[in-house]
Design brief:
The complex is a heterodimer of chains A (262) and B (252).
Chain A: E1 14-23, E2 26-36, E3 41-45, H1 52-59, E4 67-72, E5 75-76, H2 81-87, E6 88-91, H3 103-113, H4 119-129, H5 145-156, E7 163-167, H6 175-190, E8 194-199, H7 202-208, E9 211-216, E10 219-224, H8 226-232, H9 234-260
Parallel strand pairs in A: 3-8, 3-9, 6-7, 7-8
Antiparallel strand pairs in A: 1-2, 1-4, 4-5, 9-10
Chain B: H1 2-21, H2 24-44, H3 55-84, H4 87-92, H5 100-126, H6 135-162, H7 166-171, H8 173-178, H9 194-202, H10 204-217, H11 224-250
Helix pairs in contact in B: 1-5, 2-3, 2-5, 3-5, 3-6, 3-10, 5-6, 6-10, 6-11, 10-11
The chains are: A alpha/beta (262), B mainly alpha (252).
Chain lengths: 262, 252
């Protein structure tokens, strides 16, 4: 089935070229280049307001870029949006779990929308895999933060999308729930799914990602494996180590700034 | 088209589960118009001269409009909750029909309002509402009520899309609930002073109320029906266009 022009080589799962995005006067992305290899976990690291969510929204066809181009799973996000949607799933920053439905019903809902046969069986299998079988019949409004997030990710895996986007999957979770989500993401790697995740936590990127891109002020400041960032590029290493506190400082400054401005 | 129908059906089933699991949304919707109806029939109605027509029959059309006006507050609330969480974005990143999500909300709104309307009409029959309307006239009543519900549903969609909070999403319905009071719904407009009478005579509710009342009473319907249909279609078209623009702005 594979035609030569769609699979000429081991094509990158995500390619973004000079992506820009402005909301009115406000320029959020100033030319982002990104390449994610198939089957890898790529972390997009950046502080609040760095443009991570905007980039994710462009790559998942929710909004259109102002300039530049991007392709996901070989399809252009602007021209072939519906083909892109067949190949991806998004676990957004805000929970996409329906609180009034049970865990089982939430999963069945997505399976039906993906026009898969045996939605009930698919739901049962995923509940088992994410250790949610005991809570299958309970409304998800009663789930803990970690359980809801795991269900959210499980919903993203229905139909085996080639590329999974996780936007700040652990923000707002307590430490043990965070570990549960990390386990879920690690499982994805074992299945060969490509994952692009955004995070503002350095340890999360370090723990999960094969490669890391640092997004700051609307551009990618550095990209590589943790090892490359640390060793292979000595000048960058210095820059990276210096950026560690810088990002945290920005994050803290932003949040502290908000608190004190009340 | 097949995809649109099946996706809309799946999403509609989801929203109907919301309603079945929180039946208060239908009970609250029906409770307020029922309370207003009882108040007017048993308290104020005695002071209003409606000739040989029982007051409950006279006032039911206005009560039905109030029922829809309070019901669509939940339409806006359900939509707002989907938009403010991640649920809308999840659906939009899936290969489903682009319009299925919105139509599932519209369809749910219509079904929920129809259930409330049936409850209100049922109670009205119990307390003395009588009509000699033929099947054709009942069909006309049902058609106008469905069109009115559809029009106000799109108003609710705009409110749900534009709102910044749940309170904002539902607040728009209060003036709509109030509108029938300044119309021919409860007292003849002729009893009102000049400027109020002018407003009451020309606002949309009066033409709809007069049409429904004449249909129930078996009296000639007059040109009011065209004014009523014109208002409903105009509201529907304008708010459907605004809704489309709001959705487009979100995905720009």
């Amino acid at each position: 089935m594979s035609s030569p022009e769609t699979t000429p080589r081991k094509q990158a799962a995500i390619i973004a070229t000079s992506i820009t995005k402005s909301f009115g006067e406000h320029l959020v992305l100033r030319g982002v280049d990104l390449e994610v290899a198939p089957g890898s976990i790529h972390a997009l690291l950046g502080a609040n307001g760095a443009g991570k969510t905007t980039l994710i929204k462009i790559l998942t066809t929710l909004i259109k870029p102002t300039g530049g181009s991007a392709s996901v799973a070989g399809y252009d996000v602007a021209a072939q949006a519906q083909r892109v949607r067949e190949s991806i799933s998004l676990t957004g920053q805000f929970s996409a779990v329906d609180g009034i439905l049970t865990g089982q019903e939430n999963l069945e809902l997505i399976a039906r929308l993906r026009h898969l046969s045996h939605p009930q069986q698919i739901a049962r299998d995923l509940l088992e895999r994410f250790s949610l079988a005991d809570a299958a019949g309970r409304r998800t409004a009663q789930y803990s933060g970690g359980m809801a997030r795991r269900l959210d990710i499980a919903m993203s895996l229905i139909g085996n999308p080639k590329v999974v986007f996780l936007d700040e999957p652990t923000t707002g979770l307590d430490p043990s729930a965070r570990l549960e989500v990390w386990d879920a993401v690690t499982q994805l790697r074992e299945r060969g799914t490509t994952v692009l995740l955004t995070t503002q936590y350095l340890d999360e990127a370090e723990k999960l990602a094969d490669r890391i891109s640092i997004l700051h002020e609307g551009t990618i400041q550095a990209e590589g494996t943790l090892g490359e960032l640390e060793h292979l590029l000595p000048p960058k290493k210095v820059e990276y180590v210096e950026k560690k506190p810088t990002l945290e400082d920005i994050f803290l400054a932003l949040t502290e700034g908000k608190k004190s401005s009340k | 088209m097949k995809r649109f129908l099946s996706d809309t059906g799946v999403l509609f089933t989801r929203l109907m589960r919301h309603i079945v699991r929180s039946p208060d949304t239908i009970i609250t919707t029906a409770a307020m118009p029922i309370a207003i109806m009882l108040l007017f029939v048993y308290v104020f109605g005695g002071a209003t001269n409606t000739g040989s027509v029982p007051y409950v029959t006279y006032t039911l059309p206005g009560i039905l409009l109030i029922t829809v006006a309070s019901g669509i507050a939940y339409t806006a609330m359900r939509l707002f909750e989907d938009m403010s969480g991640g649920i809308f974005e999840r659906f939009q990143t899936m290969p489903i029909s682009r319009t299925a999500f919105m139509w599932s909300h519209v369809l749910t709104s219509i079904v929920a309002n129809v259930v409330s309307l049936i409850l209100v009409i049922g109670l009205a029959l119990v307390i003395g509402f009588r009509t000699g309307a033929s099947a054709g006239r009942w069909l006309a009543v049902i058609g106008i009520m469905l069109l009115f519900t559809l029009a106000l549903t799109w108003v609710a969609v705009v409110a749900g899309l534009a709102a910044k909070s749940v309170d904002g999403a539902t607040a728009f319905s209060y003036p709509l609930i109030f509108l029938p009071f300044i119309s021919s719904a409860f007292v003849p407009t002729a009893t009102m002073p000049g400027p109020v009478r002018w407003f009451a005579q020309y606002q949309p509710v009066t033409s709809i109320v007069n049409t429904l009342r004449n249909l129930f009473l078996g009296t000639p319907v007059s040109g009011d029906i065209w004014t009523a249909l014109g208002w409903c279609v105009a509201i529907l078209v304008v708010f459907a266009i605004i809704a489309r623009l709001l959705i487009h702005r979100r995905t720009a």
